[in-house]
């Protein structure tokens, strides 16, 4: 967040604090934190773009694989087509994952839907479509949460879509602070999750947004910035893709992480279960 951004965000800080005062401090904030992770010692597993090492990213097969792996959330990147439909794609262009060319925002939903989101990854997944946000929510309902990485979306449309699928208690919403501020105004009980950035920005975000969860990457996952979240009683979700192995996972846990975003959800779930810090045990085999 550059200096101009901080100044602009600071201008709406007073309004953000006023907004926070209109929401009951108890039980709302405590309830939000509890709903993210019911047992403080248990670690939430977030499957990055679904399970995308063996499935095409941001697709229904990848999300289903994350469910099968036992993850608590799959991460999905939300963008908007030229005719206002919410679809899932990480890049602003369709080129890398589909082999076609063009910006998502300049293409209609029908044009996006005609693309093949699986063949470039593997012939096994030929014919896989770019999913809608609705389809991801429908799949997730009752099975898994969604870490909503908002790349480009109208806040009202995003909120309405989440609520329509009765997933308001099962999502965390990541995005820029201005977007999250608007989401918070529309639906104060939704869990917004800003990026911590640094101590100064983290404190500003805590005051303006009162987040139940704060996101961390390798660059800001440091003792002083972690302390900001702990002081605010916010959960810490950290990306571990650069150190996505048992040593990296344990280091994150030791430093205070409540959730870990990974490219290896099955392995992370297995590691956490072996250490009795998974959110839920392995399913019973049903044998006698």
Question: Which terms summarize this structure?
Answer:
alpha/beta; 288 residues; single chain; 13 helices; 9 strands
Give the gist of this structure:
This protein is α/β, with parallel strands linked by helices and 288 residues long. The chain is built from 13 helices and nine strands.
Write the layout of secondary structure elements.
Layout: H1 3-11, H2 13-22, H3 25-36, E1 44-47, H4 60-69, E2 73-80, E3 86-88, H5 95-98, H6 109-113, H7 133-140, E4 145-150, H8 155-164, E5 171-174, H9 177-186, E6 191-193, H10 199-209, E7 213-216, H11 223-231, E8 235-239, H12 246-255, E9 259-262, H13 265-274
Parallel strand pairs: 1-2, 1-9, 2-4, 4-5, 5-6, 7-8, 8-9
Antiparallel strand pairs: 2-3
Helix pairs in contact: 2-10, 4-7, 8-9, 10-11
Mean pLDDT, nearest integer?
89
Which percent bin holds the helix content?
40-55%
From the alpha carbons, calculate the radius of gyration and give it in angstroms: 19 Å
| Low-pLDDT residue spans | 17-40
N- to C-terminal separation? 57 Å
Write the CATH architecture name of the domain at 37-79 and 145-274. Answer: Alpha-Beta Barrel
CATH topology of the domain at 37-79 and 145-274: TIM Barrel
Assigned CATH class of the domain at 37-79 and 145-274: Alpha Beta
Following the backbone from N to C, one meets helices and strands in this order, namely HHHEHEEHHHEHEHEHEHEHEH
Quaternary state of the chains:
single chain
Name of the CATH superfamily of the domain at 37-79 and 145-274: Phosphatidylinositol (PI) phosphodiesterase
Structural class of the secondary elements?
alpha/beta
Percent of residues in beta strands? 5-15%
Largest sheet: 9 strands, mixed
Report the total helices.
13
